[in-house]
Design goal:
With 540 residues, the chain is mainly alpha-helical. It has 19 helices and nine strands. The two termini are 48 Å apart.
């Protein structure tokens, strides 16, 4: 029996490690970033990688409601690839392989291969795919990558609800280590996933059979958090940034939750089938509560994300239910108790397969486009490995093309300044110029400015803090959020800056009490308010 389990564990481990390596190579080897959507969102994390490489620290040197790992992950990709354009593919390749390490222990010790392999491949593809969940395979983007990391980590953690069938000598130590690593990754990537992870570990304390590893995990989390804070020294600032973003965007109401539930009605129906089959056998209140954890908090998280579909914890509930049914069939000892349980893996595979194939196809499309250098180069010196392409994306995509054109023009204006600016800021959604031109990043500003999500007319940084260290300010005539931001900070800009260049797309300002650009050309009149509406922009 032990030999058979060891063979099964090795089979699961080798399959998932090979798959993770293959998906990672498909991402990283071409060394190119291909995007068709959310170009503005991509600039946030290219700028973030540049900030980290320049020695900045999240929430200390710039404001963000995302956790620090959301910026250190792109910086890791930048370090691995050696280029800004290869940063995101290399980063997500590293995350895919990194997730496989706790995965082979958790799934190998708790799930049978018929469940572990398809579910593990599903989670690896969720992390690797360069698309926003629920969108077309041609809607390529590394935007909001942290949501896919959060979903996969949380869904993997939920499988630890199951007790290992044959615990080995290091089982509890490895369980504690995996649980702590996954929870910490979520807390320091995006706190909404981290809170659910910590709540789930609290729920696991009521399982006397697994309480020991959970207590160890909490101990590791506490010690790690203290060590991280000793280095980071920005936890309080992070909480303040979270509170500000919460006041701006507000909680999701019953209408938002209802709409999100209806979009996932088919997924919830399948989870309900698995739940009924399990409860019919176990009659367990604890099992019912577990499936509620898979369904409820996932709905809240998804409704707060800018993704049209994807409550991945529902799939975690289905995988756990399948394993419970298979175990109950073996314990029953005769066929009459196992007919439905025997078919559960087929139902699970049918549930996982459409999303798995969708993600694998999108990953393949990105790889082919990256190898063939499909699309239009970004045109900035340090963005040589990035390309914008339309492929067969449905709908009108001229906004992305126009946005890239404006970025190119802005970069050209900056390059024409007689003296290299010391601190460039953009009064818009994101700053593409510091990373794209290799300029020193700003300090004390937001990582991004999304009107109605992390900034509005009631909740925002004072202009002296946002723009106080800026030498050159780029103000778009339209942009993503340019118009409301100009209305908000326009009085300070008029008081503290002089306009030095103006085009149909941009007004370039220099600080009046110039420290660096004292010889820049004559001022021009302020631009008239644009009548072009600001784009929607998607929230990270």
């Amino acid at each position: 029996m032990t030999t058979r389990l060891a063979r099964q564990t090795r089979w699961v481990s080798s399959t998932l490690l090979i798959a993770a390596a293959a998906f990672g190579l498909l991402l990283a080897l071409p060394g190119q970033t291909i995007t068709t959507a959310y170009l503005n969102d991509l600039f946030i994390f290219l700028d973030g990688a540049h900030r980290i490489a320049s020695g900045q620290v999240p929430n200390r040197d710039f404001h963000t409601a995302l956790g620090p790992l959301s910026f250190y992950v792109p910086a890791l990709g930048y370090w691995i690839s050696g280029s800004v354009g290869g940063a995101m593919p290399a980063a997500m390749a590293a995350m895919t392989v990194g997730l496989a390490l706790p995965m082979i222990h958790i799934l190998g010790s708790r799930l049978q291969p018929v469940v572990a392999i398809p579910y593990g491949l599903f989670l690896l593809l969720i992390v690797a795919v360069p698309t926003n969940l629920g969108e077309s395979i041609a809607s390529l983007s590394f935007a909001m990558f942290y949501n896919r990391i959060g979903w996969a980590a949380l869904s993997l953690l939920l499988v630890m609800y199951l007790q290992p069938e044959k615990p080995h000598g290091r089982q509890y130590l490895l369980d504690a280590l995996c649980g702590a690593v996954l929870a910490l990754a979520m807390v320091y990537t995006k706190v909404t996933y981290g809170l659910v992870a910590l709540a789930f570990l609290g729920f696991m304390l009521f399982d006397a059979r697994q309480r020991r590893w959970v207590l160890w995990a909490f101990g590791l989390i506490a010690v790690s958090a203290l060590l991280i804070e000793a280095v980071w020294q920005s936890s309080l600032s992070h909480l303040e940034d979270l509170a500000l973003a919460g006041r701006v965007s507000g909680p999701r109401g019953i209408v938002d939750l209802s709409l999100a539930f209806l979009r996932h009605l088919a997924d919830y129906a399948i989870l309900a089938i698995f739940t009924v089959l399990v409860l019919w056998r176990t009659r367990s209140l604890r099992d019912l509560l577990f499936f509620g954890i898979c369904a409820g908090p996932g709905l809240i998280i998804q409704s707060q994300n800018s993704q049209p579909w994807g409550i991945i914890t529902v799939f975690a509930g289905a995988a756990v239910a399948t394993e419970i049914l298979l175990r109950s069939r073996r314990l029953a000892g005769h066929e009459s108790h196992g007919v439905l349980a025997q078919g559960a893996p087929l139902l699970l595979i049918a549930f996982l397969l459409p999303t798995s194939l969708h993600c694998f196809a999108a990953l393949g499309v990105h790889s082919v486009a990256a190898v063939t250098r499909t699309g239009e180069p970004f045109g900035l010196p340090r963005f040589g490995e990035l390309r914008l392409t339309k492929l067969w994306v449905p709908g009108d995509r001229t906004f992305m093309t126009d946005y890239l054109m404006s970025v190119r023009e802005g970069a050209q204006l900056l390059s024409q300044l007689p003296v290299k600016p010391e601190n460039v800021s953009v009064l818009d959604f994101a700053n593409p110029f510091t990373a794209g031109l290799g300029l020193p990043p700003s300090r004390g500003d937001y990582a991004w400015l999304h009107w109605g999500r992390n900034i509005n007319d009631a909740h925002h940084l004072p202009p002296e803090r946002l723009l106080g260290n800026v030498d050159v300010l780029m103000v778009p005539k339209a942009g993503i959020n340019g118009i409301p931001l100009r209305n908000l900070y326009g009085a300070y800009i008029q008081e503290a800056f002089d306009p030095i260049r103006q085009t149909d797309l941009w007004t370039v300002y220099k600080r009046r009490e110039a420290r660096v650009l004292s010889s820049v050309g004559q001022s021009v009149e302020h631009a008239k308010p644009s009548r072009v509406g600001a784009g929607d922009g998607m929230s990270p």
